[in-house]
Design brief:
The complex is a heterodimer of chains A (384) and B (245). Chain A has 14 helices and 12 strands. Chain A is α+β, with helices and mostly antiparallel strands and 384 residues long. Chain A has 2 domains: 174 residues, no CATH class; 174 residues, no CATH class. In chain A, the strands form 2 sheets. In chain A, strands 1, 3, 4, 5, 6, 7, 8, 9, 11 and 12 form a 10-stranded mixed sheet that branches. A two-stranded antiparallel sheet of chain A has the order 2-10. The longest helix of chain A is centred in the C-terminal third of the chain and has 38 residues. The radius of gyration of chain B is 18 Å and the shape is globular. The chains are: A alpha+beta (384), B alpha/beta (245). Bound molecules: adenosine-5'-diphosphate and magnesium ion. The site of adenosine-5'-diphosphate has 11 residues of chain B, from strand 2 and helix 3.
């Protein structure tokens, strides 16, 4: 009872100083948690993807399409049970800031993505409407869309304003499922390109293959790519996970930088708090010397400093963890469609608390060591 | 080892000595303290011999910088000599390890400082209770003792006050209660009235005198105030680290 009381009262001797320290720790812990969640969300797309699906794209670059005539050929490959294709649309909704993914999809696409959960009625309505579209729950909520709404998208790759009828809103089967994508019929896109835009139609941005056995991924990929070798449009086939990670790899440097910054934030607050604790301890040398003169041990004095430092750091850390949730919620609302699975993970919370613990221990280490070692007569002289 | 084990009663020590005159409570022999500054040796105390019998009240006087505080700190076991012996109640404290010395201090020495050295976050009660936190006394026993000590110094009504809510004289009285609370062998006071006005200083000295007379406490007090020294049974003078009787 005596030590906790002493520590608590000591911590509140300089209310402003302690408050500022706690605020600093809260900010650092929230920032740390947010940055880690951003990195997590970035990888989440890849983690949520199925290993039972392959993605085939142009071996030159993702921006070069493949002929639609590949579809039946790919379907013939042993181990492939289903083929779908999709085209990136890249339209703008109202203004450029409203970024979300839009794909024109083949009829078989939804069958291959059981994680996109759509009611039978909505599915039927979508299939029946040539200009129909479906959107993920998160996306629909962000823009306040309801089934039946007309969604205009201004084409960037394909000119003109395209208006779609929202026929359904899908949910994610799992927590990590991306529900911020906008999907519409490939046929509508293809026919419009051919008839109204006078462009070359019958092209697929990428093919998705369903595997009979996920273990065959390597062999099937090789077989598909071999089939189109030395053709005008050679292919590159990989698992959906590898494909997603390829996107992530493009931004590996950015992710690394974000991770580095998240740790730098902790190191900075650690230095700030170490300085604060050193200042606090220095002001109390005479008290520590008095404790020791009365017979208290060096360890007792060190304990007072450690307990105070840990108490402040963990208090700030807990508040920081608590505030990370609303902060992440707000952040997810703003950037939801860019980082679909934006969710604070248990790992992040553990790391945040561990960071707070380390801040408390590191900040106290040198002051505690010094205070434990200071000679009583020198400490006592600190007043007079 | 425990400090208590080393400290017998006066009677026990007398028996051990086999009827010979008892050893004084404090027996200092050939005590020296030097500081090294670079390759320069600065003598602070030179070859001190001093006996303080039990129940004595000694005033240590001398000009500033003559080594009074250093000598008092050595006797109180918060500093280490360069050479020599300090036997207190039969224990040569210069031979104790730091940890044993801390234990010895907690049982044997009551400290009174010039600037009181109270813990600012603890009430008068909490400050007086502080040394008892190192004992195995129950909460109730501690409370009884603290109340007795506060009554003795006339501060029963200020038990809940923080040091900064007390006058200098009141703070020093809290410090005296803290010095008494473990019933120590020895009370050391370094300029206990140095920060107080005349009247208050007089009250504090009166209190120390009572501790010595009524409670039979052995007191060693550093002072450069002749009025304070008058209260002592005996005055010892230090000049540049040497005792002049
Ligand atoms: N850590 C130290 N290093 C060097 N000299 C010291 C140290 N501590 C005390 N002294 C010297 O020892 C002498 C005696 O000091 P002190 O015992 O405090 O004197 P007094 O209490 O009589 O005024 C002084 O000259 C002081 O400068
Ligand atoms: Mg002095």
């Amino acid at each position: 009872m005596f030590v906790p009381l002493l520590v608590l009262r000591n911590a509140f001797r300089h209310k402003l100083r302690t408050t500022l320290t706690v605020v600093g720790i809260i900010v650092a812990i929230v920032a740390f948690g947010m940055l880690r969640t951003i990195v997590d969300a970035w990888y989440a797309g890849a983690n949520a993807s199925s290993s039972a699906r392959l993605v085939t794209r142009s071996s030159v670059s993702l921006v070069f399409p493949l002929p639609l005539s590949y579809a039946p050929k790919i379907r013939q490959v042993d181990g492939v049970t289903r083929v779908a294709w999709a085209n990136w649309f890249g339209g703008i909704y109202i203004n450029e800031r409203n970024f979300f993914a839009q794909f024109a999809i083949s009829p078989s696409y939804l069958d291959m993505y059981p994680e996109f959960v759509l009611s039978d009625d909505e599915r039927r309505a979508f299939v029946a409407d040539r200009t129909g579209a479906i959107a993920g729950r998160k996306l629909a909520e962000k823009y306040g869309w309801k089934v039946g709404d007309q969604i205009p998208l201004r084409g960037t790759i394909f000119p003109g304003t395209w208006t779609f009828n929202l026929r359904g809103i899908y949910d994610g089967a799992e927590e990590g499922t991306d529900t911020s994508t906008f999907l519409f019929h490939y046929d509508f896109l293809n026919e419009t390109i051919k008839q109204k835009l006078g462009g070359r139609g019958d092209q697929a941005g990428l093919y998705i293959e369903q595997l009979a056995h996920p273990d065959d991924a390597a062999a099937v990929s090789a077989a598909i790519d071999a089939m189109f070798r030395n053709s005008l449009a050679e292919t590159l086939t990989e698992t959906e996970k590898a494909f997603q990670l390829g996107f992530v790899a493009m931004s590996e440097a950015i992710l690394l930088a974000i991770q580095a910054v998240s740790f730098v934030v902790i190191v900075i607050i650690m230095a700030v708090m170490a300085n604060t604790m050193a200042m606090t301890a220095r002001e109390r040398y005479a008290e520590y010397a008095t404790f020791k003169a009365l017979g208290f041990s060096n360890g007792f004095v060190a304990l007072l400093i450690f307990a105070e430092s840990l108490g402040i750091a963990l208090f700030g850390g807990l508040l920081g963890v608590a505030l990370t949730f609303p902060a992440a919620g707000t952040f997810a609302k703003t950037v939801g469609s860019i980082l679909p699975a934006f969710k604070v993970s248990a790992d992040t919370i553990v790391l945040q608390l561990a960071a707070a613990l380390v801040i408390g221990v590191v900040a106290a280490a040198i002051p505690a060591w010094r205070a434990a070692r200071v000679r009583i007569v020198d400490g006592l002289r600190a007043i007079g | 080892m425990t400090a208590d084990a080393q400290v017998g009663t006066v009677d026990e020590r007398r028996e051990h000595a086999g009827g010979a005159p008892p050893e004084p409570l404090v027996a200092i022999r050939n005590l020296s303290k030097y500081y090294l500054r670079g390759d320069q040796v600065i003598p602070v105390l030179v070859d001190i011999d001093l006996d303080v019998p039990e129940g004595d009240f000694v005033a240590l006087m001398g000009p500033s910088g003559s080594g009074k505080s250093t000598l008092l700190n050595l006797i109180a076991g918060i500093d280490k000599p360069s050479s020599g012996e300090i036997r207190i109640a039969g224990v040569d404290i210069t031979q104790l390890s730091d940890a044993d010395l801390a234990l010895w201090r907690s049982a044997n020495v009551g400290f009174i400082f010039q600037f009181y050295n109270l813990m600012p976050v603890l009430s008068a009660f909490g400050n007086v209770e502080l040394p008892l936190q190192l004992t195995s006394l129950s909460r109730r026993e501690r409370r009884d003792r603290v109340e007795t000590a506060l009554a003795l110094v006339g501060l029963s009504d200020r038990a809940t006050h923080l040091p900064n809510e007390l006058s200098g004289g009141q703070q020093q009285r809290v410090a005296i209660a803290r010095a008494l609370i473990t019933d120590p062998t020895l009370i050391v006071a370094d300029e206990p009235t140095g920060d107080l006005d005349r009247t208050t200083a007089g009250e504090i000295l009166g209190l120390l005198e009572r501790l010595n007379r009524e409670l039979d406490k052995t007191i060693i007090m550093v002072t450069h105030d002749p009025k304070a020294a008058e209260k002592a049974h005996r005055v010892v003078h230090l000049e540049k680290g040497v005792l002049v009787h």
